[in-house]
Structure formats: C-alpha cells, structure tokens
Amino acid sequence: MKPVVRLSGDDAGVRAVAREAVELMQQGDAGRALFSGLWDLQQRRRRFLARPRSQATAPMAEASREPR
Question: From which domain of life does this come (predicted)?
C-alpha cells in the first residue's frame, strides 16, 4: 500500500498544471514544448528549495530593503 501524500499550496498547483501538461503533450508537439518548459520550471524550484535557508532567502532580503 502506497502512503497518501496530500499536497497543498504551490505543490498542489504544480501537480494540477503538470496533469494538464501531460494531457496537452498527448495532443502533439506544442504539448511537448509546454511540458518541457514546465519540467524545467519544476527542476529550478526543486533546486531553490533544496538550498540552505540562508541562501534561499538572501535575494529576497536584499530586495525588501528600502533605499537610503
């Protein structure tokens, strides 16, 4: 028996988009291009989340500073 994984937030959105992309991929070349782009996006997101927290939030902290 497989464990049940409940997705919420961004993960649920990614899964829903991936499901739609798979359906489009079955329709032809345009679907393959879409799926490829979504796959690249998911891989970048996975690498971003795998980084240590200090590195992952550093650009956001810089962007939130007000100019002096």
Answer: Bacteria
